[in-house]
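Sample entry copied in:
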Amino acid sequence: METRVLGAEDAERVRVLRLDALRDSPTAFSSSEEEERDIPVAQVAERLAPTPDGAVFGAFEDGALVGMAGLHRERHRKLAHKGVLWGVYVKPAFRRRGLARRLLEEALRYAASMPGLRQVNLGANAASPAALALYEALGFERFGFERGFMAIDGVLYDEVHMTRLVTKR
């Protein structure tokens, strides 16, 4: 297994995996397959370019992209000390092998290299104990709970808000 920062050359694979994620785990993401299926590959490629303010990380098994996680810095100047971890997903057949942990560790290393970044925040579905346990094992702490964060087909889902201080290298 390999993990690395993704780039424009990975756009088609990322697009396919993202749509799989949105279909497979709709309660894990605030976006939907319907909202993302028509995004052109060129636009995905543009978004994938790593910057000093963030990157997308991929996990590969035998050359196939099977997991990913994104990190970006908040855009407003007064919030730029915070990063946001987003889009964490591993294909079901590859779960429980440590891939998500490796992706998150890589994202946290990247966060530590970002000048001025002091903390990383994330939101996770409250009904996902495996995800919450992994985030807590990596040092994230709960700081909030939002009832009815998201609605899918009339069903409300709660979200746990978590944060972790960035350890500088």
